[in-house]
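Standup notes
- HV: blocked on the assembly model, inputs below
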Amino acid sequence: MRRLAARSSSASQELEVIAPSKLAIDNVSKSFQSASGTVLALDHVSLQVDEGEFVCLVGASGCGKTTLLNIIAGLEKPDSGNVLADGKPITSPGRDRLVMFQEPALFPWLDVFGNVLFGLKLKPNLTNKDRRDVAKYYLELVGLTRFERANIHELSGGMKQRVALARALAPNPRVLLMDEPFAALDALTREQLYGDLQRIWEERKKTIVFVTHNVREAACLGERVLLFSPHPGRIQEEFAVDLPRPRDINSVDLAGYATKIIRSLRKFSEERREDGR
Amino acid sequence: MKRFLSAALFFVVLLFLWQAFFRAKIWSPVLLPSPLQVANYLKGAIEDGTLGHATVITMRRLLIGYFIGIVVGLPLGLLIARWNLLRDTLGTTALGLQTLPSVCWVPLALLWFGQTEAAMLFVVVMGTLWSVIIATETGVRNVPPIYRRAALTMGSKRLHIWLKVILPASLPFIVSGMKQGWAFAWRSLMAAEIFVTILTGFGLGQLLHYGRELSAMDQVIAIMLVIVVIGLLADKIFFSPIEKFLHRRWGTSQA
């Protein structure tokens, strides 16, 4: 790890790479009431995520993938089924599982540094100096050291998501849950962030569940890509992406995987149309 | 500097116009004193301490009442935003009373508290309180839910969320509510002081009132000027920096 010598021992301890979590989602169902009746967002979904695995959930919007993410985060409760993190049931949000949303959700009343510090301040057993050291480390990790005193509105969309990533990483969670975090960014910025995220994942060893509707993005980032189908929300198919890292979103090999996933996605929606559903 | 000069020029022209009207003798000099007469009164009132004394008394009433209004109004606003029952009851009450010009509390305050400082404070509190409550509640309800969710995942809970997320997120609304409360309180206190003589202290409003009784227009206009200047100073010294900070942080305008 970089520059550890300058830090106090407790800050170094806080920055240690900790063991990522194993997630077990077992038979989870969840439905919502909407104007057009009951929507079954998740229909008996089961899924295992290994320690330190990078899993991508892909599917059309409204297929329940965000709902699943929220359930893992503890922000929503399933109607039935169990969700376990390291064998313990998830009942509420907790900082061992941090979420990155599609909007950066940064706090405008704090500057960049204050935002990264927010989660750290909720961790007891750290001195303020430790917290500052840790926050500085993660701002360096996402390449924003120069902007630590900037106001949120002064940042570009990509920089905001980098701050959000630093904020999510700072309390050293075991799991990182990402809900289409790059969807609102331009292609160039996105490609940079793909590289950053892969590097950080290898450096910090997190279990990552990444939700997206972008198949290429999923193939680029995930070790495993799970294809969701909507109404009712189910996991339809699973793909292992066996490519060396860092992966380039524009590489030919990657395009091969993406094509395979898209074909399956298309086949499924055609079958569905024929069924008249 | 250029902006300062043009502003200064504006006020010089204003004074000049005033003097010109005085010279033209359209109105009797009793009704329209010259700028010099007003300045003379001000000089005298400052030298014999009348003005300083009255200002201190008025500001004390205002600041204490305003402070009470905020200290009571802010938590009430938060509570109203939190519980629907309170919103339907106290919230509606606050909304209704906010539309009531706070001068209307003066007769009631007099009957309840008599000609005392308490009556003055009551009027100021009534001017501040409802605006602060309504603004706080509106502010809280305009906080994007995602802030709350983000804070929850970082381990923030009940009271911490309210103090560290909801409250700061509603600050732009709360500050504009405080500003409105200040304006209401200031107006109603002046009205109360003009209406009612309180023996425990003569405020600016009372000086204005006696100016009228004695047909001393120089006094009336001088006190009006003082009131205007205090209002301006409150804005420049207190509210303006806060608003500038909020604009800079939130990026809402290029002030």
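- HV (later): unblocked. The two ends of chain B are 17 Å apart (CA to CA). Chain B has a mean pLDDT of 91.
- Next: hand off to the docking folks.
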